[in-house]
Fold this protein.
Amino acid sequence: MRDLVAENKLSSDDLIQPIFIADQKEMNIEIPSMPGIFRHSLDSLYSETEALLNAGVKSMAIFPAIGPDKKNAEASHAFDKDNIVCRALEGIKQRFPEIVTIADVALDPYTDHGHDGLLIDEKIDNDQTLNLLSKQALLLAEAGADIIAPSDMMDGRVKIIRDALETNQFKDTVILSYAAKYASSFYGPFRDAVGSAANLGKGSKETYQMNFANTQEAMHEVAMDIQEGADVVMVKPGTAYLDVVQKIKSEFQIPTFVYQVSGEYSMLTLSIEKGWLDKNVMIESLLCCKRAGADAILTYAAKQIASELNS
Ligand code: PBG
């Protein structure tokens, strides 16, 4: 009876797996602050992709951990056709053309200071970053990304990326914009995973990520990104920001994704491991994202929850 009258459902169709990759000899290396989550070599990435498909997950978002020797102030390795992300996208497309690949656009994995944009005179320069982002987006589309996901929060980047895709035969490439991305301490474990925290100085991305006190600003950001050509918008983090999701969904009726970020995953997973919370808490938190209006959810628990839901 409870199922008959349930208003929302969670299925493996709703789940997207974020995945970390690195140039490394070992097959995979566990990330200390994210139990059960690994940095994969390319070979390990391909077997993981197969496991995702078998579990019923239909999409993955790729994030690189770049060696310190390849990072610099200009993020130049981001524009190298042979970087690990481009090789991974090509390799996945060859082997598993059916999985939907999402590639992040932002400079932080490649900059020695860990910021998403160019640092000029101690400040992130929005406008000088834009051309680099469109160059990066184009490279990722060429490598086979189905979805380009700018996570950098520079103003005007959706338009410049859309123009670059349209004028270069990538009319079908989808733009998933991290439209309402807050300056959040919930990203800590992710920065460990990709090694982008080391040089963040005062730790602040506050000149480009949003103040967690604001919702109207989120509406403004989403409106701009839609106008500039975004196909899907995203709210990040998830659980503590579901009021923002609901508001976006009811105001704009556009596909809206939620990112249950690293810190949320680690809090829940650790508590489950310790026996302090029941393991059902993960499904609860994901279903609540759907109740708020999310069409899909990026979650590090995607593979595990999809196999639970489908078994
Ligand atoms: C950076 C980026 C971040 C995440 C995704 N892309 C971190 C940041 O802004 O520092 C965080 C994801 C997570 O915490 O799981 N462009």
User: Anything to note?
Assistant: Residues 126-143 form the longest helix (18 residues). The two ends are 21 Å apart (CA to CA).
